[in-house]
Design goal:
Blueprint: H1 8-17, H2 19-30, H3 36-43, H4 47-59, E1 63-69, E2 76-82, H5 87-111, E3 114-116, E4 125-126, H6 127-132, E5 145-147, H7 150-177
Length: about 180
């Protein structure tokens, strides 16, 4: 049975590595227990590209590999299989990591004052950094001015609340389904 539609496994693979990952993911869905050579043949990709992709997907627990002896050649090969049931867990973990980074960034923004000369190509500086350079931009020599980061902090708070709400809904739905 060939799978023609794009399911979440293929979409996640594409987000992780682009077109090569999509081709490998489709091949895995179309042929269970395929070897890396069979996948390379089906996708037209080089064997090293296929192996790199497979090891990356394996490292993220999106596929599983079973080592078996190839009876024709006598050496061991891996047979790869997509773990579509792991996709939701992978997405949830990525969201949790993103949420943690957003929270850390919000804490940093809340705890600091920032200064900038106002030019987009020049960096912004914390108060401590601005003092060290005497409130003069080292790139353009303009005076550094206090930045109002209230809008940015509110944007972080909004996104954090949105993600928490979405993750709580998903958890509740999964608890009900189980």
């Amino acid at each position: 049975m060939k799978i023609e539609y794009e399911d979440s496994f293929v979409k996640i693979a594409g987000l992780l590595g682009g077109e090569e990952y999509i081709r490998v993911a489709r091949a895995l869905l179309n042929s269970e227990n395929a070897t890396d050579e069979e996948i390379a043949s089906a996708t037209g990709l080089k064997i090293n590209t296929v192996r790199r992709t497979l090891y990356d997907l394996f490292g993220k627990s999106l596929i599983t590999g079973v080592r078996v002896r190839d009876l024709k050649r006598g050496w061991f090969v891996y047979r790869w299989r997509a773990q579509r049931d792991q996709v939701d867990g992978f997405i949830f973990t990525q969201k949790r990591k993103t949420l943690d980074r957003l929270k850390r960034r919000l804490t940093f923004e809340d705890a600091n004052e920032f200064y900038s000369c106002g030019k987009p190509e020049c960096p912004k500086y914390t108060f401590e950094e601005a003092i060290e350079i005497f409130f003069k931009c080292p790139d353009c020599n303009e005076t550094l001015k206090l930045i109002d980061n209230g809008f940015l902090r509110e944007a972080f708070r909004w996104k954090i609340e949105q993600m928490i709400e979405e993750m709580n809904k998903k958890t509740t739905i999964n608890d009900v389904a189980a």
